[in-house]
Design goal:
Blueprint (H helix, E strand, L loop, with lengths): L3 H12 L3 H6 L9 E6 L16 E7 L3 E9 L7 H16 L3 E6 L3 H7 L3 E3 L7 E3 L2 E3 L10 H6 L1 H10 L6 H12 L4 H15 L4 H12 L6 H57 L6 H9 L3 H11 L13
Parallel strand pairs: 3-4, 4-7
Antiparallel strand pairs: 1-2, 2-3, 5-6
Helix pairs in contact: 1-6, 1-8, 6-7, 6-8, 7-9, 8-9, 9-10, 10-12
Length: 322
């Protein structure tokens, strides 16, 4: 299954075909800046049912050296069958288009990059019929761009630097420089680079830093990363507010319950006082009187009954003014 980093490592060259000429100086070659670029079909399947597809295929035209083809392959790990596939791609493209064909392999770790750049020969040792040696871009030779001004000079290269250094310690500084540089870029330029960078970082720890930088530094436009972070923050804030409201309600209920318990305690005390006074005066207290007094919860009413209990000739007359 194709992964987001795989897509980012080659599609960024579709986004800006001139990137290859700018990257070439870090690869030890000098490729002229193209004056024209055309994306070609990536399907290299012949009439047989075996499907073969190159990741990105561009026709680049230069002013001095004429046109050539650039095949870009994203390689996430070592694979013993890949050199043969790459040899097929370049030979097929050379045959089909009759144009010089270059192969660029983009990697994100040193081990894969070292493996990919080793020359592979087809044929016996004494008969090297075809030798494949792709150009390789990876953390070993891509620039570490930590200066926002340098990133601003070439935003696409800075994005590729972040992608190829996704697992390196320098990636945080690269991302901070890139996000700062993108603040001044128009949305149509910044947005695809934000997404390419996010794809290239995949699930690595640096992805969280990039998401936060996008949400804060690049909040002037809508991005799924920015919206994703805002949704998470919004949910977190809602939980915090909900907790605050719950605490406020709990305090209010506690005060209400405290008042209720205080009133109930006062009512119980006055009911006991009424019955105690009636008993001390030797009055006959029926079950009806006792029940009415003990079931009353109105402190003010009980206060009036308490006053009448002192002088009432009969227990029942305590309620006469009720």
């Amino acid at each position: 299954m194709v992964s987001p980093p795989h897509e980012a490592m080659h599609r960024i060259f579709q986004h800006d075909p001139g990137l290859f000429s700018r990257v070439s100086r870090f690869l030890g070659v000098d490729i002229p800046t193209p004056v024209k670029a055309t994306a070609l079909p990536t399907d290299l399947t012949e009439t047989n049912p075996v499907e073969r597809r190159v990741d990105t295929l561009l026709r680049l035209e230069t002013a001095d050296q004429g046109p050539f083809l650039l095949a870009v392959e994203a390689q996430g790990k070592k694979h013993p069958d890949k050199p043969a596939s790459w040899a097929y791609y370049t030979a097929y493209l050379w045959t089909k288009y009759r144009l010089p064909t270059a192969l660029l392999v983009v990697c994100q770790d040193h081990s894969t990059a070292r493996w990919a750049q080793q020359p592979v020969t087809c044929g016996p040792p004494q008969l090297p019929t075809l030798t494949l040696q792709p150009l390789v871009a990876g953390p070993h030779n891509m620039p570490v761009i930590t200066d926002p001004e340098e990133a601003r000079d070439d935003l696409v290269l800075a994005s590729l630097a972040a992608i190829t250094h996704a697992a390196e310690p320098d990636v945080d500084a690269i991302l901070k420089a890139l996000s700062t540089a993108l603040r001044d870029a128009p949305e149509d330029i910044a947005k695809p680079l934000v997404e390419f960078t996010a794809q290239g970082l995949a699930k690595r720890p640096a992805k969280n830093l990039w998401r936060n930088l996008v949400a804060v530094d690049l909040s002037f436009y809508k991005s799924y990363l920015a919206e994703e972070v805002r949704d998470e923050v919004r949910a977190q804030v809602r939980d915090e507010v909900r907790d605050e409201v719950r605490d406020e309600v709990r305090d209010q209920v506690r005060d209400e319950v405290r008042d209720e318990v205080r009133d109930e305690a006062r009512a119980e005390s006055r009911a006991e006082d009424i019955l105690f006074i009636l008993e001390q005066r030797g009055l006959d207290i029926s079950e009806d009187v006792r029940s009415r007094v003990t079931n009353c919860t109105d402190p003010e009413l009980l206060r009036r009954w308490l006053a009448r209990a002192v002088t009432a000739p009969k227990a029942e007359e305590v309620f006469e003014d009720a």
